[in-house]
Specification:
This protein has 162 residues and is α/β, with parallel strands linked by helices. It is 31% helix and 17% strand. The model has no long low-confidence stretch (mean pLDDT 92).
Length: 162
């Protein structure tokens, strides 16, 4: 399971998602350009003191990210691209996740372009009350990653108590 962030523009949300990924042992793909400097210093300023505990792959463009996703190293298989969007047609709890899925989150201010919607293997949504715009991107990531890991038995195993 991986999280991919499409051109993130709020460093605090990116830091929160990186911390979530570090704690749950999943990788993160950062698709540039970002709306802020993507440096260790910027992430640490956002409270991301777990930066050395998360596997981060940076991509200069969506095209670069998608090529890497579709043609992974020999020891990995291609992953499905699962877009989390307010325009989704499948509630995330009704979707059957696979351990190799990549969960794509768009920009906080603009989502992802239409052509990326068209490339997604599935477009998921979090059901919400009518009239409300969206849930924070970091909260969305936590909710959907939690369900995906639950379904795939992908949560880290706790250390034995002695």
């Amino acid at each position: 399971m991986k999280i991919a962030l499409y051109q993130p523009d709020i460093p605090q949300n990116t830091g929160t998602i990186l911390r979530l990924a570090a704690c749950l042992g999943i990788g993160v793909d950062l698709i540039e350009p970002a709306g802020f400097p993507m440096s260790d210093r910027a992430f640490r300023r956002a409270g991301m003191d777990y930066l050395d505990q998360v596997e981060i792959n940076r991509h200069k463009s969506f095209q670069d990210f998608n090529e890497n996703r579709q043609n992974p190293p020999l020891n990995e298989s291609p992953s499905r691209l699962i877009l989390l969007t307010t325009r989704g047609d499948i509630p995330y709890c009704d979707f059957a996740f696979q351990p190799s899925d990549t969960l794509l989150l768009g920009r906080e201010t603009a989502g992802v372009p239409e052509d990326i919607h068209d490339l997604a293997d599935a477009c998921l949504l979090i059901p919400m009350r009518p009239g409300l715009r969206s849930i924070n991107v970091a909260v969305t990531a936590a909710m959907v990653v939690g369900e995906a890991l639950r379904q795939t038995d992908g949560f880290p195993k706790p250390a034995p108590v002695m």
